[in-house]
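Standup notes, structure subgroup. Blocker cleared on the adenosine-5'-triphosphate input:
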Amino acid sequence: MNEKNNKQMEQIVAFSKRRGFIFQSSEIYGGFAAVYDYGSYGTELSKNIKAAWWKAMVQENENIVGLDSSIFMHPKVWEASGHVSGFSDPLAECKKCHTRARVDHLLEDVGIFADEKMTEEEINGLLTENKEKLTCPKCGQKSFSEAKNFNLLVQSNLGNFTADWEKEPTYLRGETCQGIYINYKNIVDTARVKIPFGIAQIGKAFRNEITARQFIFRKREFEQMELQMFIHPDDAADVYEQWRQKRWQYYLDLGLKEENLKWHEHENLVFYAKMAWDIEYKFPFGFKELEGIHYRGDYDLSTHTKYSGVDLSYRDPQTNEKYVPHVVETSVGVDRTFLAVLTDAFVEEDLGEGKSRIVLKLPKNLAPVKIAVFPLMRNKPELVKKAKEIFDALKSQYMCEFDDNGNVGKRYRRQDEIGTPYCVTIDFDTLETGTVTVRDRDTMEQEKIAITDLEKFFTENL
Ligand code: ATP
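Run returned:
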């Protein structure tokens, strides 16, 4: 990460805390690595990100239905999925400062891509071959221990009331899609869906991530938004291409700048993956995975059929053909989207005469607060009363904020910082002529609008 990008990251981290977007978890106890909490504005932004995804996936596609499966599942689920044996990252330790690093990341930094499912031996081969190039991210030395695979599943003792260590451990889910596969049959039986159809889910996932240096990009407790499309094997290439295009367009619609997005094709695919591309975003620390779009063949339903003994094949009601559906998956983190959206929207604008403002140029649907309402002066009860009336009328429809603190210029700056698209000021004109001043976040232009037209104005503009 160069100095400029480093500064951008520091600015975003400091801003996120100062304006109540993101706090480190358990801060009063010294913090808890790779776990973060969303503050009041952060919670709104995160909810709006999830709502935008849900609308684009479930609401606007009549063949996609939602699901909310549990974090805990039968331990066999994780055996069947291959997570117990193979969900691991290769870890090596710097011999000088003992910093632990992911070997695949060290390799990636020098342009070598390692397959997720490589054995320890294969990874160690790459590590030895490239040992002159791989530098410790902390101390810069080029001397690492052998790599060891480190399983990422987070274990729990749920339901384990005896000290019986032989008992199978339970896990906090490492990805949300397993909940989709194990409910596939329930959905087919209850939701009146026919192949091709999709199941979408938003929910928490947990991973024992080794490196935890990139703010909310890599958390140990995070949220995923996943779609699994169940399809006929012959349609795989078409469906895959459709979803690649849809997901790219989705990010443009979400307001991300196209120059900050790029495709990355997986070079070494895991054995069951047939096609795998990531959409990467230009985070302050470089282009990194935002979303994975994967064609997984029939791997998931076949292995769950094998482990559970329940037949998860599909019979086409028209042709009577029986087959195991194939899966195209799109998977993205809420937190990574949050960081991408924040990075894209964060602007420090020069206003001339030595003045500047921080403004979050968020798309309106994502803005935590849509409208801020100000009485021009807080010590004029008639202005405050009128402003409260307008605030009360708007708040049933929009997330609004009432602010009577400091001068109006300062209030504008506060709202710009959190990305509020419109500020409405109630002044003496309001009492006389029934008009308010509506100020636009991006243009900073002010417009007089009659109170009676406010509803129409916001319906058209928000
Ligand atoms: P990475 O290579 O960065 O570890 P991954 O390939 O393991 O990610 P997937 O298992 O494909 O990630 O998960 C799908 C999506 O979930 C990712 O594209 C990312 O947006 C999100 N995600 C995965 N791990 C994390 C994490 N630790 N913190 C936040 N989001 C995550």
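Discussed briefly. The first strand starts at residue 22 and ends at 24.
Next: hand off to the docking folks.
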